[in-house]
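quick one, two chains, predict together pls
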Amino acid sequence: MTVERLTWNTPALTAETFDDEVVIVNFDSGKYHSLQGSGRQIWQWVGSAPASDTLVEHASRTFLGEPGEIASAVRAFLDTLLAEGLLVKAAADAPVGVLQPVEGGPFTAPVLTTFSDMQELLLLDPIHEVDAAGWPVARPTDGN
Amino acid sequence: MAGGARVTPEVSPWRDAGARTDAEALAFFDRCLEAFEQARARAGDVRSHYRMAGAPLTLSFAGRSLVGDLTPALRHLETTATGDGGLTIGIWDGSSSDRVPPAPAFTDRASRGNTELLQYSEGRIRAAFDSWLGMLSVLDVERNLALFWLRDASHVPITLVGTPFRIILQWWASALDGQLIHAAAVGTESGAVVISGPSGTGKSSTALAALEAGLLYLGDDFVLAQPGSPPRVFSLYNSAKVDDATLETRLPALRDAVHARPRLATEKEVLFAQARWPRQLRADLPLRAILLPSVTGGPESRLVPLGAADALRSLLPGIFPFPGQRQEAVTRLARLARQVPAYRFELGHDSRGVAETLRRFLEP
């Protein structure tokens, strides 16, 4: 039984919701992510800072499918979002919102796709030396 | 450098490096301004005027050492009139003047660990130092006055020749709800498409094929996009970057349009559309679509519909060169992605077919 409450890891990230996908940019890691399938709806529900068990139960009731399989997939998805730093544990005094009922339809597995091309560009910066004036000077091997 | 303290990049370069007080920021800007004015008094004031995104822009160089490298990309926007209320950029360098910008008062590890060495991303003063290029950009939003200093004028990297002042221009464009995007933009009188994608996906060669075929051109590397009804795209630079292989195999007729300059073997060639296709340049056009190019190797070119989220994801990596205000940038790009359709542009091997596909799509 997991009773911890989860919420979005703001302000480290920002998310944009489209018809069939959520695009999330994590300003801390420099990665961006795509949530598809039921992941889009699960992301919306997390915004209410629910207890994870409540959310899993709500998903199992909403989507059509075998409840045990849905619960298992949603739990694994929440764990993945936590590990990626997209979710955090909500503060104890954070207000709890209402998990909005939606037209469920057949359950589709939540899919998280992570893109790191932006991160690679950001982390390319070489080690620099700092001169006496305080301005860094690129080492000769930096290609300057 | 002997005796220097080694600093390493921060793990999280997205974090703004140490927000400072407004008074510290203003004092830093004023010391930079004093250094620039001294350099300009000695070397002479070389001015040129432009109209960009409908607003006046003035460049004031201290001497001529950077004029030849930093003005050709903007030449298509040059005007004779001095506009009121526009942005002015003061420019000097460390090769021809000993008047260097002052070292920042803050020297903590975080502020020196990455290319955004010192940075104010909010408030009146914006500042960023690119330690790789030895390039300082600062802007006073209230005075609409920016300063640009380059450590070494003897080797200006091609990225600066092709797209000068782009950090300053992004700060300035934010006030117009504009976003510099890493994309090419071409079109007809009825509107433009932006072609967004990482290097190697055919973005530049598509833009050049369009130019060769007589389409209108707004840029190859960075253009300014503004959400709205309709959204618009503005030209910033008339430069185009192209690698040697593309010139040899796909666009040999453009070899004589290349801007002659010393370059590293790893750098692309740069050419200026203003020199060869001046009548095909446009300062702005309504934005009709976002295209994500994909080289298929097949004979035909075609457009395949995509979703708005695909368009946003393709535009996101382009915000990395710009310090600060990244949340705003994401929101602005998402609005843009929702306002125009997106397509995967499957590029056939015939460059004339590529341009013809664009022309047919843009027919009113």
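The radius of gyration of chain B is 21 Å.
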